[in-house]
Design goal:
- There is one protein chain.
- The strands form 2 sheets. The chain has a 7-stranded mixed beta sheet. A two-stranded antiparallel sheet has the order 6-7.
- Helices cover 37% and strands 17% of the residues.
- It has 2 domains: 5-112 and 195-263, Rossmann fold (3-Layer(aba) Sandwich); 120-189, no CATH class.
- It is built from 11 helices and 9 strands.
- The protein has 264 residues and is α/β, with parallel strands linked by helices.
């Protein structure tokens, strides 16, 4: 699949992969800050942003999309930074193509599976999808109206506004539509929450790795640390204080300081 991207700056390639419900636009500010010394590629993953939609949405497919992107743009090796679902894509890619990775930055995601029916992450994403799917885009007349409907399911205003960036107007009749493949992603949630079995892969030691987690997020918890160490034995693990899962948006200065310290 040919992925849409934005490319900024010159130098060593640095690829940024957004998370579930996101797009390359979410990382534009960070990409600009890095573009003074890197050629930064911010990519729309399949079923997101301006990239094509598909009923197939799993990490094998997304890793393959990224490999095709590397070939199309003649990228031999790159720093790869991925947030959430993008972090899991980056891990799958690094395991499949370690020779193409010069460093790995994983943002608030671990290799472990989150697909337990009782897992808070599973329940949270199901509530998000329930809220998004409750909005009748053929009848809604304003973004304010859509946000009011979404508020019945998502009580955090910042998260609602982030999700509703995917609600776009058609230029001809001004009707609303979803930029992301809402139904395709909903049907693929189990795939998105799957993990990496450390017993099925060889440990990665060929390049530097850092996991950056939010203090208030539970994605990289005590249970995740041994799994990280089994796959990436020498990985650094850093915590951003007063930040949740979207730590790069909640604490951008602290986040970028951590990234730059690692890259230096």
């Amino acid at each position: 699949m040919k992925l849409n991207s934005q490319i900024l700056g010159q130098g060593q390639p640095l690829v940024i992969l957004h998370g579930l419900y996101g797009s390359s636009d979410n990382w534009l500010t960070h990409a600009k800050q890095l573009s003074d010394r890197y050629e930064v590629h911010i990519i729309d993953q399949r079923n997101h942003g301006k990239s094509p939609h598909s009923d197939e949405h799993n990490y094998t497919a997304m890793e393959g999309d990224l490999w095709q992107y590397f070939q199309e743009h003649q990228i031999e090796r790159a720093v790869i930074m991925g947030h959430s679902m993008g972090g899991k894509t980056a891990m799958f890619f690094a395991l499949a193509h370690p020779e193409s990775v010069s460093a790995l930055i994983i943002v608030d995601m671990s290799p472990k599976s989150y697909d337990s029916l009782e897992d808070a992450k599973t329940l949270y994403h199901k509530e998000i999808f329930k809220g998004l799917r409750s909005i009748n885009v053929s009848e809604v007349e304003s973004r304010t109206e859509a946000e009011k409907q979404l508020a019945e399911y998502i009580d955090q205003p910042r998260i609602r506004k982030f999700l509703l960036k995917n609600l776009q107007r058609r230029p001809d009749d001004k009707s609303f539509y979803w930029l992301l493949n809402l139904e395709g992603l909903y049907n693929s949630l189990e795939n998105i929450l799957e993990g990496i079995d450390p017993d099925m892969v060889s440990p990665i030691t060929a390049f530097p790795v850092i996991f950056i987690r939010g203090e208030k997020s539970g994605y990289i918890d005590d249970e995740a640390i041994p799994i990280i160490r089994a796959i990436f034995p020498y990985a650094e693990i850093e915590t951003i204080e007063n930040a949740g899962h979207w730590l790069h948006a909640e604490q951008p200065e602290a986040f970028m300081n951590t990234v730059n310290d690692f890259l230096d």
